[in-house]
Amino acid sequence: MSVKEHQIEEPNNAERQIKQRRIEGFDALRVFALLLVLTSHLQSLWGSSSAWTKIYGLDIGQIGVSIFLAISGALIGGDTRTSSEWLFARLLRIYPAYWIVTVAAFAATALTGYKQIDPLQFLWQMTGQGMYFMTDMVNVATWFIGLLIALYFSIYLFKRFDRLIQGVTLCSLLCLAIVMINEFESYFAHALAFYVSVGFSKSKSWARLRWPVIGLLMALAIPNRILGYPTIGLLGVYAAQFVGKVPNPIKLFARYSYEFYLMHGIFLVGAKKLLGENARTTLNIAMILLSVAATWFAAAVLHEILRWCESKWFVRGRSNAYIFRE
């Protein structure tokens, strides 16, 4: 089943219902993935044991990452824009919020002395590639941006040279081979979830092989557990396409999920530093809830400001491409 998010022609009622169901299903899946990541990070800051954030040896936060990437891959299937239009739209969605949050994170770190920082580290992280050059990042959760940008640029190149399916197939095989050789390569396991999801959504031949491919990954995950990450991500994306209407609070939370992801580490670390190591359990719980609420509010504000700026500077063309306003 292909995933179509963008359509040039006005869809009929049946098509509109399918489109809405798929989008809402992905909203619910985004929120689920975000909760997995949030729970894992809460455990790393406040928990004494990581056992309850592991499933068959898999970290639930890393499961959330694979789900995010599988969703991103699935949404590429229905995109009708040119390679340059698509990449520009993706970078416009990623970088402005990321830059603002990164500046805020470095400012907070400098003021509190939480970590040692330097200008070179700041510059690398502003590019989104800090994970490749820094051993101790500020706002560690944003390591994900480096992986996402690398995947997007690979798709851009494949689309640019009209070799999307061939490129996705080759990268999927390479990622699988690397993970089979080194079972600790979660980076390539997440990339595998992305590339396979693109293949399922973009190619009928790939789609016909959905269950053999997922079955193979499940079988290989028995001796190599890390392949459980892409397997769960791909199963989640498939199941989400059959989800009916989701509650409005879930859709609202999903709307700000990217900004929430970027910000949550800043608020959680700040709350932990304010409380110290010996705070009472009830106080810890209250501070966690307060920091999550503050993160959501800040994410909503940032999202709406950036969307307002986008509406002032750009207009969307017929192919859903961004065009500068004159």
The percent of residues in helical segments reads over 70%
Radius of gyration: 20 Å
- The end-to-end span amounts to 40 Å
Biggest sheet: strands, sense, closure? Answer: 2 strands, antiparallel
Strand order of the largest sheet: 1-2
Average pLDDT across residues?
Answer: 87
> What would the principal axes of the Cα set say about the shape?
globular
* Share in β-strands: under 5%
Structure explained in plain terms:
- The protein is mainly alpha-helical and 326 residues long.
- The protein has one domain.
- 72% of the residues lie in helices and 3% in strands.
- It has 14 helices and four strands.
- It has helices at 13-46, 60-76, 83-112, 119-127, 130-133, 143-160, 164-181, 186-202, 204-208, 210-220, 228-240, 248-255, 257-275, 281-313, and strands spanning 54-55, 58-59, 314-316, 322-324.
- The chain has a two-stranded antiparallel sheet. A two-stranded antiparallel sheet has the order 3-4.
- A hairpin with a 2-residue loop joins strand 1 and strand 2.
- Helix 1 (13-46) runs parallel beside helix 13 and helix 7 packs antiparallel against helix 8.
- The longest helix has 34 residues, at 13-46.
- The two termini are 40 Å apart.
Secondary-structure topology with pairs:
Layout: H1 13-46, E1 54-55, E2 58-59, H2 60-76, H3 83-112, H4 119-127, H5 130-133, H6 143-160, H7 164-181, H8 186-202, H9 204-208, H10 210-220, H11 228-240, H12 248-255, H13 257-275, H14 281-313, E3 314-316, E4 322-324
Antiparallel strand pairs: 1-2, 3-4
